[in-house]
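User: Structure with adenosine-5'-triphosphate, tokens only please.
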Amino acid sequence: MNSQQPTPVLMISGEPVIGPTGRPKHDFPEPPPLESHGPARIISMVNQKGGVGKTTSTINLGAALAEYGRKVLMVDFDPQGALSAGLGTSPHELDTTVYNVMMERSVTARDAIVETDFENIDLLPANIDLSAAEVQLVNEVAREQVLERALRQVRDDYDVILIDCQPSLGLLTVNALTASHGVIIPLTAEFFALRAVALLVETIEKVQDRLNPDLEIDGVLATMFDQRTLHSKEVVGRLVEAFGDKVFETVIKRTIKFADATVAAEPITAFAQNHPGSKAYRQLARELICRGGAP
Ligand SMILES: Nc1ncnc2c1ncn2[C@@H]1O[C@H](COP(=O)(O)OP(=O)(O)OP(=O)(O)O)[C@@H](O)[C@H]1O
Ligand SMILES: [Mg+2]
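Assistant:
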């Protein structure tokens, strides 16, 4: 996909600089612009644990990819509608959302997708209506493939589709995993966060077995990293032991700016362009592209 290679960051002495994950640090090159667009690679942000940075990572990774000229569709797949609100829409006022696209034959994804104020970013919004879908889907034929079918119609219009999942491993999340090429697992750099991951990996493996053999784990992303604590570093060390190179070299530090950006309903990359949080998500976008996780 992308042949650009990361280059090691060296000290004046020639020794490699060690990054926050305990491995040698790299510079990820600026991706060249794309000559043509689509079909999109589809990536789900998944962790059944709440408040780990799924929505924040969807918005800001998506915004960073959009800055690099990638056409991005963000799919809000959480009835709370936090992604929709975070991109400046009022989800409770919307008549047509991802719920209608999934449950009504006559409604297509194109009918529900809205443009955002941000260049190269469209949104397939959600609101509380989606909370009924989990129950209603149970009686559908091919109930795990409903989202996949819905996204198929618009895949050619985008380079990347990011699905922001709700904190659960229920049927909606299984739909997201079935529709996806890759999964990103955001996780707070805290010990108790590690426990949830085993169950998540089991679910991903079941989906690979039964529904979507091509599904890959694109990466594990440490969020809310506190560089001052040994604790954060130990957790990331444990993650690297368990997941090896799947752990993104990029870690997202803890900062209140993310909450401020949410209040402003903007990606941090727009709200505070030069903030370290913006730079971190741009680096994540470049790292993902270097890995072949996005065009
Ligand atoms: N790196 C960070 N530093 C500080 N706060 C953060 C960071 N990332 C996210 N937050 C804040 O933590 C809270 C939870 O983040 P977010 O909503 O992205 O998590 P989530 O996994 O989507 O949650 P849910 O499971 O409820 O959907 C939010 O208030 C957000 O602003
Ligand atoms: Mg969320």
